[in-house]
Amino acid sequence: MPIAVDIDVMLARRKMSVGELADRVGITPANLAVLKNGRAKAVRFATLAALCEVLECQPGDLLRWEAEDPGRPAPHDPGPADG
Question: Distance of CA 18 to CAs 9, 10, 32, 43, 63, Å?
Fold first, then answer.
């Protein structure tokens, strides 16, 4: 999936366990594990906001885009000019 989740990085910076974060955000540790391991298909904005509040960070600190195929241009990149 092209969206990578960096919850582990923020947990380490805040010296917080997965269980503590799940409890403070109000989700199950299993659902937090799905999200942090990159297996989630979606995340609710309310959950993202709660994660940011508890971890004192911005959404961009938790989520980043990665190209799936390094040889394929990004959707906004027209690629090499024809000529």
Answer: 12, 11, 8, 17, 17
